[in-house]
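Changelog-linked ticket: zinc ion example.
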Amino acid sequence: MTRFLALLFALPAAVLLATGCQPDQPAVPLTPEPGFRVEVGTDPHSFAEFEKVRITHLTLDLDADMNRRTLTGHVVLDLDRPEPGFQRLVLDTRDLDIQDVNAVRPNGEYLPVSWRLGGDHGHLGQPLVIVLPQGIEQVRIDYASRPEAFGLQWLDAEQTSSGKPFMFSQSQPHYARTWVPLQDTPAVRYTFDATVRGPRDLMVVMGADGNLFERNASGEYQFHMPQAIPSYLMAIAIGDLVFAETGPRTGIYAEPQWIEAAAAEFDVLEEMVDIGENLYGPYRWGRYDLLVLPPSFPFGGMENPRLSYITPTIIAGDGSLLALVAHELAHSWSGNLVTNAGWRDLWLNEGFTVYFEARIMEALYGEQVRDQLAKLSWDGLLETLETVDERDSQLVRDLSGRDPEQAFMRVPYDMGRFFVDWLEHRFGRETFDAFLRDYFDHFAFQSITSEDFREYARENLVEAHPGLASMEELDQWLYQPGLPETALEIRPESDDFERVDGWRQRWLAEEVGLTELPVDDWSVHQWRHFLTGLENRLDAEAMAAMDAEFDLVGQQNYEILFLWLMRTIEAEYAPGIERLEQFLLEVGRNKFTQPLYAALAASDWGQDWAIEVYQRARPAYHPLTRQAAERALGLGD
Ligand code: BES
Ligand code: ZN
């Protein structure tokens, strides 16, 4: 109805603007009236009507202003128009200042076109509706991002370890629209070129080809992305960056203060890429570098192509937290090469990646480490399944009407991974590895749905190797809530963890003293298991005794330190609380900060204290970290 009305109003303009307009063409509101609303298209988290017109390439030209916290410039979008008569281009934007929109004629001339920003749809932003005259295959949009852009974090000089400003993007799942107007759906892929100008004393890097090994004195940087990627993989960062090589095609970017420790921690990077290739075929992206971000980075890692973003909180000094690097690298196949078409299919990205991560870790460190990691993931999954409601305990999840942020929980990751484990278990490693190599090859550079995978698996696994698994069994994993019964076939066991359970029990029962615990043999993951099992079991006195023995409060390993701080909140343990304050002021990784704030809010002593610390920490937090912390603390909406 709305669309029909808008068409009526727009009709004279349509006739004027769109030469050659046929009377039987689809309803195209050329100058949408105020209040005009575009329905969401095929992807419930994007306004793009990508089946009718689709971006194939984009050319960015941006100036970064670190003081004003803006990216200003323009983007030229190359379009494929499978429905040439369809004369509307709808782009996703959020908090963008759109200055001008022009169509570009094949001869390069600009042609001003009508456009309008539609209503505000909260986290989905505002659709930018552009009139697309016939025959036009390029559109130029002049725009600026705003300081509050959700997908960018701007840090002032005093908020970084280098003492110089820093900016980085986080586009997944749907924040690319806060710094580029585009079709912000993983169903659309495009190549891109970019020219970015930043301050001369900083370096600009992107998830693309063209990253330099040294700062460019002119402050201008050129990038090219020859492989078609979805928008959530668009990435840019600007800071006082230096580079250290870890191999012929791998290296690390970081602020000077981190570089040495980071290069040492990640010295297996080149080997990891080789392992990945041996498992699932060529690494197709050229270089693989890591960008170590400031500790306010809201995630552990982000698989930006050619340049994964990594939190410094995994630099433990002993390589014990490298699974995260294996994970982001694995996305170069599962996710970046073969991509989920929508966020309902996230398990295709994350489930395969957690499986692949485990295979890389097994190849590097052996079965014991693999089993420990599998057990952590299993226990975490079971805990999650107990708390979430049914619709969220399914691999393929309908997320329409919900924020795609909510797709990212343990289910697509860990249940996805155990589904893939189970397929390997049923078909045998050799058959399954061959299947996966073919799968990555077959769907390379495509965005696919769970159903595309299902059909491919039917043909190439279930029917090609009859008698090993049925489609009903596969469908239980995909579409039934919770773990299916067949999951018991692959339930991970870890002797190492069982021994830790035994020691924990004996210590709690006062049968053994702290000095008798064989901690010298414990891996970081065994420590994690030990501390997780002490939830609500310690008082301040017991914690002080543990600190006297093991100095946990002085831990350099953030996974262990985090668990110790959780126990600190439960036990109201003073020395830990001091460390917790420092931690919250320094680290913005959501996986840590969110549960810490939630535990403080739920404790009988910590709510006001936490709000006070949060107010001080907030300026250096990423918008995502702020959002999660405020929810945990019951602030705002
Ligand atoms: N793609 C994710 C990062 C991400 C998560 C982006 C949620 C947007 C929303 C990345 O590959 C990832 O999964 N990171 C994990 C680490 C992994 C080892 C589970 C993380 O950051 O904790
Ligand atoms: Zn991931």
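Closing comment: Example verified and attached. The first strand starts at residue 54 and ends at 65. The chain has a mean pLDDT of 93.
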